[in-house]
Automatic annotation (TrEMBL):
Family, as annotated: Belongs to the esterase D family.
Database matches in InterPro entries: AB_hydrolase_fold, Esterase-like, Siderophore_Hydrolase_D
PANTHER family (alphabetical): SIDEROPHORE TRIACETYLFUSARININE C ESTERASE, SIDEROPHORE-DEGRADING ESTERASE (EUROFUNG)
Name this polypeptide is given: Alpha/beta hydrolase
Hydrolase listed as a keyword: yes
Lineage per the UniProt record: Bacteria, Pseudomonadati, Bacteroidota, Flavobacteriia, Flavobacteriales
Annotated source species: Flagellimonas aequoris
Length: 271
């Protein structure tokens, strides 16, 4: 087992006094006027957040999609990589803000596919509006958040992450797309990519590709490679995109190593 996995999992177990509760984070319910519904949001704060000597310190934020699924894993990795107790110094201490799901197909797709069954697809732009116009202002007003924001998504969440990266008006500074489902509407994405401007390419994108097997090679890895190659051909050295292929990981197992490697890349200048 790689060393960082051993350190990660050992960091989850803290010896405390008998009966003491050790909390990973907390949750709130936030009403969205844009989505016309209540959304459950999970927060994990840095180790030093409540330190009386650091009440003026601001912390960058991570917005994490599929919050219920990835919250514990992402929070543990972020704490390990940024905690001054561990002295790893791989990234700054960071606030993790995880959004629990209501309707993934609706929220993570920006186009509507024609299907035999009724569907709710195509609400991705509205969902990004909720994040940028309601959630981020809430975080800024209630937490000591620095003006640096990273968006992380897996699968359809990765698709939304790439689409946010392609949007020159996006409020995010960095993007971590884990095995993004770009097969959903590749033509639309390629059209948006062709019109990318320097606002997008000035931002970092980490792209993780999983091994989905030979049967899905065309559907997944080949599409990923071609899309990244098109961006590299258009922008060359100006592009700040790193793609890693995790040959030993499938679609379900890839988030753990991708989060670690992706956050290292996105924060590689931080010491």
């Amino acid at each position: 087992m790689p060393l960082f996995f051993l350190l990660l999992f050992s960091s989850l177990f803290v010896v405390g006094q008998e009966g003491e509760t050790i909390e990973l984070g907390h949750s709130i319910s936030l009403h969205s006027k844009i989505l016309n519904e209540d959304r459950s949001i999970l927060f994990s704060l840095p180790d030093s957040y409540n330190d009386p000597s650091k009440t003026d310190q601001l912390y960058p934020i991570i917005i994490l999609l599929d919050g219920y699924v990835h919250f514990k894993t992402a929070s543990a990795i972020v704490h390990f990589m940024g905690s001054r107790t561990n002295r790893s110094y791989l990234m700054p201490e960071t606030i993790v803000v995880a959004i629990e799901n209501v309707d993934r197909e609706r929220d993570f797709t920006i186009t509507k596919l024609q299907t035999k069954r009724a569907n709710t697809m195509g609400g991705g732009k509205k969902f990004l509006d909720f994040i940028e116009k309601e959630l981020i202002p809430y975080v800024d007003n209630h937490y000591r958040a620095a003006p640096h924001r990273t968006l992380i998504g897996h699968s359809l969440g990765g698709l939304l992450t790439v689409n946010a990266y392609l949007d020159p008006h996006s409020l995010f500074d960095a993007y971590l797309a884990i095995d993004p489902s770009i097969w959903w509407d590749e033509t639309t994405m390629e059209s948006r990519m062709a019109s990318m401007n320097p606002t997008s390419i000035d931002k970092k994108l980490y792209w993780a590709t999983a091994n989905q097997g030979e049967a899905n090679y065309e559907r997944n890895k080949k599409r990923h490679d071609r899309f990244v190659a098109m961006m590299e051909e258009r922008w060359r050295d100006k592009l700040q995109v790193k793609q890693d292929y995790f040959e030993e990981e499938d679609h379900r197992s890839v988030p753990l190593p991708a989060l670690y490697e992706g956050l290292k890349y996105l924060n590689e200048t931080h010491k």
